[in-house]
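As agreed, record copied across for absentees:
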Amino acid sequence: MCWPGPSSLLIRVPFGLFCLRSNQDTINRNGMLRHFGTLVLLAGPALSVPTLRYQHNTERSWPQSIAAQVHDQTWPDFANVTARWSTYSAPTFTEVFLPESAEDLSTALAYLSTTNRQWLAQSGGHGYSPTLGSIQDAVQINMRNFRYVSVNEDGTATVGTGTRFNEMVWAVGDAGREITVGNCPCVGALGATLGGGLGRLSGLHGLTSDSLLSANLVLWNGTQVKASADTNPDLFWGIRGAGQNFGIIYEATYQTYEQTNNGMQYTSDYMFDRANLSSIINITNDLLAVPGGLDARLAIMLTISYDVEAERVRAIFMLLGVDLELTLPQPLIILNLVYAGPEEEAQKYSGLYRPYSSVFAEQVVPWTNLSSVALFGTAEGGCDTNGPVNQYAVMARNLDQDVFIDMVDSFSEFAQNNPQASSTSAILVETFGQQGIEAYPDDFSAFPHRGAFHNAIALSMGYTDEIANVPGDEWAREWRARLAKPKVSGYKDFHVYQNYANDDEPLSAMYGAGWRQKRLTALKNAYDPQGRFNGYHAIPSVLKNWS
């Protein structure tokens, strides 16, 4: 989940639609032009720049066949390549390795496993768990050369691990197909899959990982293996929900689906006053409570932020063509509703929220365009890198009205007292249909939250000054604890989506308990016996260490 924050929108709105890619991409560019129109680049004369000298390798002896693909900190592109979405408790690197093939990756891990050096693979760079801070002075294995998507004749999609969600969407959509993807377009598709993969189409097609058919990966010692329902099925089970623990996936194949409603989806955005928040919560809870659950085609995202600079907020939304009628400062409450079906059916749902809104907008767009228009066109602003984000999350069956409103009021007070965090922090709630997720049996994969995945609540705390980190961390931990109480969450157990987790939750909240822990520990010992992939919510190699 990525959140732009009100202040960052001012930079992102004019330019966020356009991405430049290398010639190695195999994504259908004609399809991109159909979606975004013709982009003309105007440029002056090329600048003459001095030759920059850097060393490919430092004091360590990499195998000669891949040494030219290793770069140290004197490389001109080092800072750009190692940039991450969040700098909070982030890993640090002294070298970058850029494999160009599976064989290169295999050679590198075979070599690194003979040293005491840490390593971390990066695709999108959006992993923000503070557990990553345990990886210091490491080798970054950057997978940008595996940035490709191809849709096959049988409707499956072959995806390289350097691919972002937006690139996956364009390729799959151009083929007249669809698949569950997350709301944030710049997240690495494979990275999100490893923790499960939630998204707007979960009600129809389940998790992103539920559509995974096979994966090719390299283990800690350089061994190349395939994981699928027929080949290494135990590993295939584990990589769908706990996949960061076992190896580096370099390519995967997914099932895709014929587009719903010919690929056209209804999207509407709303802005609400604080006084109407209780009505909004009641409507969402009522939709969750209908027999059969939330409509499988319906997806709702609620964002609540607070910027102490009222005129800055007004200026930002004026750029978006939105004239705010709110009295500011107050919580900025925005809801996005997406429906994968006809407009007249969608308006039955949008009509529930609309009477309470101070600003309303609706349109019907190709599903491939949602990240460009949803949330008043601000979603892509969340792709900015190199800002600290400390996030706490919890799953809830319903939104407890009293607790939620108290939390929003407390958040407003926190923002007023900590202006260094006010423009970069937010409360986020994602509410998706569950039918596609619950269509699979509980033991289908390592993902442990089927039946307990109705509302993903994230308390995303950013800041522009380190002075706000401690109060932000304390505020988010306190409210996460309140939301996680069974009487509030509606679940007997504490459930946290692994991709959104911090580092203080019990591992059972991310991975489940009982037989799941035994199976995961057995897999860890079989495929990563030295614990080389322990940087991201590590699975214990000994059962007693689960508690």
Observations:
- The longest strand covers residues 357-366.
- The domain at 67-145 is CATH 3.30.43.10 (Uridine Diphospho-n-acetylenolpyruvylglucosamine Reductase; domain 2).
